[in-house]
Each structure stands twice: as C-alpha cells, then as structure tokens.
Amino acid sequence: MEDNTATRSKKRSILALSLVFGPALFLIFMATRGCDHRFKKLADYGLVKTPTFSVYNHKGKQELTLQDYQDQIVLVTTLQTSCPHNCGLAFFPLTQNLYKDLRTNKRKKLKQVRLLSIVVDSLGNPVSEEQLLDIQDMLRSRVEGYDPELWQLVNADPKIFYNLTNNGQKLIVKDKKYFGGISYNELILLLDKQNHLRMVLNGHTEGMIRKMKEHLALLIKQYDKERAKKQN
Fold this sequence. Notes:
It contains five helices and nine strands; from the N terminus they run αβββαβαβαββββα. The chain is globular. It has helices spanning 2-21, 91-104, 129-142, 159-162, 206-231; strands spanning 53-57, 60-64, 73-80, 113-120, 151-155, 165-166, 169-170, 187-191, 197-202. Strand 8 (187-191) and strand 9 (197-202) form a beta hairpin. The strands form two sheets. The protein has a seven-stranded mixed sheet. The protein has a two-stranded antiparallel ribbon with strand order 6-7. The longest helix is centred in the C-terminal third of the chain and has 26 residues, at 206-231. Helix 2 runs parallel beside helix 5 (206-231). The N and C termini lie far apart (57 Å). By secondary structure, the protein is α+β, with helices and mostly antiparallel strands.
C-alpha cells in the first residue's frame, strides 16, 4: 500500500512539474539543451547581429549596436506600452526578482550585466519616441531604484534581435497563444560578452524568470572559471 501511495505521489509531482515547465520549455530549441548544473558551459547559438538602434539610457538617447555592449552580458526583452497592467512578460517578477538582483548587485558580479527592453505596442510593433519615454516614466514611478544605465530602453523593430533560427526552429513565431500573437513578446534572450546567444526562455511566468537567473549565474560562473584559469 505504501509503495502504491509513493508511486502516485511521485506521478503527481512529475505531472505538476510538467504543467509548470512544459509549455515554456518550450516553443524554442534550447531549453532542453542549455543548462547542466554539473557544470558545463551554456550552449552557444551563434552571433546576434543588429544594425544601429536607438537606446535611451543614463546618457539620454544614443545610437548604438550590440557591439557597443561587448564585454557586457546582455538580457534582451520586449516591453509593451500596455505594461505594467498587461505585459508579455511577468512584470512584477521581472522588476522585483530579476532587475532587483541587477540593481542590488551592480557593484559585484552583476555589474557586468545590462537589461535591454525593446518598447513595443501590445502587438509587438515598434512605437514612437514619445510612447517609449512614457514607459520610461512608468518605470521610474513603479520600479524601485530604476536605473536607466542598468535597464535601458530600446526604440527598434524587435525582429532585428529575434530573427534567429537554429536547427530549423525560429524564434519569431506567430500564434494566438502568445501575448499579442507573436512569440518575442514573451521571450528573454541571454547574450554573452561577444554578443552570442546563449539561452532563450519564455518569461511569461515567474518560474521562467527565475530559471533565466540560473542561466545567467551559470554564464557568469563560466567567465569566472575562465578568468581563474588564466591567472593560474
């Protein structure tokens, strides 16, 4: 009897995990391959190339490319003008979990990390400069310690960041199941210091935002091990 009870309990646990992580692990090719906590390097899905885009940061408006972020780890998201009430990503965990870690640890290991959010409308289309500045004001009023140096807003077509394919799988997918009918409204990209894509996760849930933090920590650990190896 006890064996049967344990078996049923185990099955319920597996089912619960499947319900939580199954839909998000995912539409994309990498979630099943990217992370091994025994420690292996995150997979490298190649260079992300972008033309010049407008960035609104602590210096005001600047015209930059991803090459300007070399030697920094970059997290890329979209951010809808309908936020914070209606967002592709889980807004509260994004601000109170992921961004808070960047802000509170910016003088330590996470000082090398930047969060770039491409401001779009609810359908994932580029917006005007005025709409972007409205979102910047919203972040200042609603996000504790909002720092435009750490969390930079981008005025660009998100397709220049998300137009990626690996093993026949595309990041840009149109489907009603995604916020606004387009997959990139829900995706977080993790780029290394050479602008290579190392992980993609669906940030529509708190669990996946926490998982992205784990992958970020793995990438930082990779750089720490490489630096220690060079010193020895």
